[in-house]
Amino acid sequence: MSETTTELWSDTTGGFHPASVPDYLPARQIRELQIRRLRAVVRRAYDHVKLFRQRLDERDLLPEHIERLDDITHLPFTVKADLRDTYPFGLFASPMSEVVRLHASSGTTGKPIVVAYTKEDLEVWTNVMVRSFAACGLHRGDVIQNAYGYGLFTGGLGAHYGAEALGATVIPISGGNTDRQMMVMKDFGVTAICCTPSYFVHLIERAQEMGMNFRRMPLRAGIFGAEPWTEAMRRHIEEASGIKAYDIYGLSEIIGPGVGIECQHQDGLHIFEDHFFPEIIDPETGEPLPDGEEGELVLTTLSKQAMPVIRYRTRDITAINPEPCSCGRSLRRIRRISRRSDDMFIIRGVNVFPSQIETALLAVEGTLPHYQILLTREKGLDQLEVQIEVTAEVFSDKVRALEDLRRQIGLSLEHTLGLRVGVRLVEPHTIQRSEGKARRVIDQRNI
Fold this sequence. Notes:
By secondary structure, the protein is of the alpha/beta class. It is 32% helix and 23% strand.
């Protein structure tokens, strides 16, 4: 490490972190690194993963046929069903003697998804998490409250080891016990928090009830992920708490959190392309789309050993931004992900996404960022009702104010969605709070 770099890193006000060097590599060097790693990971998967080898053999395709980055489009997709169908260890490319950790999904929609890590995989994960925190301006000397869940969920441990490697002080508080979260945040001088955006909204609400003011605390940043959230939600969080709200992206199937992160300019998610290769495809045809065009994000792990994943269809809808970022990073960015293709539901022939509803609701003054979407079926037709909490002041007026607000919300929803939907206003604390991922949609159509 050079003397200049050492001086930068010794500055606890937030200098350049040495782990972030790959973020600034010239694009040509990144592409050269990507093709070398892509060829290696395809060879590893072909030699050690039966399902992948079968699919390549069906195409008369061999690893040595991958000569350029564009050749990735010849490779088969991987989908979530592949991980369930090969449960528990069918996609592993390393023997269990080399696997040092397993994580798994909750399995609420079927068999859980199991993912594996070698020692080298964990080092990569820690590295991209350090780079993630550094991109948000965090550094040694920060006190980071990690309210992501620990255990089989990847969020807690992924953020934990990255924050420790950064040199920060980590509080492994996990999720839940909101009053204790607030006490620790105040008493321990927390400067950054990691959790889902919906849980931080709950913390804001609880702080107001306890007479606590975020603006009087040293808290300055929130690293929010694990669920889609909108720009409207970001504005609410930042205006209500005075912090900067950063979006972090990841998924267990690829590595966990740390696939991408916003920098301090908050202008899209930088993908750590030296480890994860992004593509955008047409979700209907599977054909690749050019930069700037919206479609489904597909990711390939370039360095994963225990469980290499080739062309994984994330179902997340976004676009690659080809313009350089003001931060100087050469890493490509994707547009913030606020919706998934499998989140969509159709009401009277109109495609509706939960993120659209959230944007419409938060545009109306007097509402709170707590809502749920109820889907029912009457006489063979799907019906949608939005239930939303309103402020205590508005709810105290049982007639005019409520009706005026309901009408405003209805118009905002109709303008955003292109159809009329039911609106029900409920008093504060009516809708159940989430300590993890928020459950926005209540689907009763098959009940």
